[in-house]
Every structure is written in C-alpha cells, then in structure tokens.
Design a protein that fits this description.
250 residues, 8-stranded mixed β-sheet
Length: 250
C-alpha cells in the first residue's frame, strides 16, 4: 500500500508496475481499490487503484452526499493521478462519476478514459435509497441479486464484494449512492475531448446498456463495449473479456 497526503488527509492506493504510462482505477459505491485485482494482473499497463475517502485504508472526509462528496473524491483521485503520473482513468459506477468530474473540472491531462457501469446521470431508485438508510443488510442482499452487481458470478467473488460493502459500512455506502443520485453531467459530455470507452455487462440493471449507448453517442470520441454474461461489475464477473477489450482500447 502507498499513500499520498492532500487537503489534510491521506489517500491510500495500490500500485502495480508495468510497461507504459500508468492507469488510474476508481472504484464504485461501497467498494475499495481491491476490487480491481484482476486488472492489476490482466491489463498490461502500470496500475494505481485508490481507496476513496472513508473506504479501505483512506482517511474519511466530513462532507454531505452530493457535489461536496464528489469533489472530495475527485481530490483523492487527482492526488493519486499526479503522484503516479497516470495518463488514463478507469471508473466504475460512482468511480465513473469521479472520472467524468476529473475530466470536466480538473487540470490533469488524461489521454483516455474508461467509463464502466456508469452514466452521465446516475439515478438511484427510491427503494434502494430507503433500504440503504433503514435496512443495510437487505440493501446488500438486493445489490447482490441477479442483474444488479452480478449476473452469475463465482460465489467467492460475490462474497468478497458483500464483505467489502459491509466493511465500508452503511454510512459511507449510503453517502456514495446518494452522491450518485445527485450526479448529472448530460449537458456537458461534449466537453470531454479525449477518447472514452463506455463499457458494461449486458445484464447490468443498475446502469443499463442504454446508459453506455448514450455516453458513446454523446462523447465526441466515445466508443461502446458490452460484456456478455455479466452485469454491473463486468470487470469482476468476466475479467478476461473485459481486460481484453479495455487493454485494446488503452
């Protein structure tokens, strides 16, 4: 584990060396940088996967859900990007919102972006929002049902995902999802000038394929990829297919 200090807090990240310029990986709601383990080994580029504030080994922030938290998470990602000199950013779900915020609002030069299981607007259904507030275990169960985070995963992979979400805890996970719910950059996608790949699983019920079709159509240099037999966490459920497509794009 490595850390970088910024804005009075420490952000932890895992780094795997390799050939070429580094890729920054940003995880989604209720997860940590450990979720990108298959990509550290499977994409032939140096990799840095951070823990956003309040997740894993990183210090937390005292921010309310929405733009304030998104900006803090973008600060975390930018600090790591600068530390390792990353020239590409990969974001899943909430991490995709962080990536788009970086591309639109920050001055680090990225040459490419991969937007995975995400969208230009990330509406979270009222039922899930209520469960996250009132019955966290039920929310974790719902998210791990078919067509949500996974379609038909290896049981060990799914259990690691459940354990990670429980470890991050209810308060931070709810903050993550509410921050997603407030996110909307549909009117700004034309400002993203670098090549961007929108990719998800064909069974993604959280951010459907249509979200990614929209990204690919609206981003000036957008591309679309759909991973068969996978849902929201396609990079975990079908890592070989995901790594091949993303590796080729990068």
């Amino acid at each position: 584990m490595h850390t970088v200090t910024h804005h009075g807090r420490a952000t932890a990240y895992r780094y795997t060396p390799g050939e070429g310029a580094p890729v920054l990986y940003v995880h989604g709601s209720g997860a940590t940088g450990q979720v990108w383990g298959y990509q550290h080994a499977g994409v032939d580029r140096p990799a840095a996967a951070l823990d956003l504030s309040g997740h894993g080994e990183s210090d937390d922030v005292d921010t309310g859900p929405g733009p304030e938290t998104l900006a803090a998470y973008a600060d975390d990602a930018l600090a790591v990007a600068r530390e390792v000199e990353a020239d590409a950013v990969v974001g899943n779900s909430l991490g995709g919102a962080v990536a788009l915020h970086l591309l639109l609002e920050r001055d680090h030069t990225f040459e490419a972006a991969v937007l995975c299981g995400t969208g230009a607007k990330l509406t979270v259904g009222e039922g899930l929002r209520d469960l996250l507030c009132e019955e966290f275990d039920a929310a974790v169960d719902l998210l791990h049902g078919p067509g949500m985070l996974f379609q038909d995963p290896d049981p060990e992979v799914a259990e690691r995902s459940r354990a990670a979400m429980r470890s991050v805890g209810r308060a931070v996970t709810e903050r993550d999802f509410l921050t997603c719910h407030a996110f909307d950059v549909r009117d700004r996608l034309g400002e993203v000038r670098m090549p961007a790949l929108a990719i998800t699983g064909e069974h993604d019920g959280l951010t459907p394929v249509s979200y990614h079709e929209y990204l690919a159509e609206q981003l000036p240099k957008g591309e679309l990829a759909v991973v068969e037999g996978a849902a929201h966490l396609s990079f975990l459920e079908r890592p070989e297919a995901w790594n091949a497509r993303v590796g080729s794009f990068l």
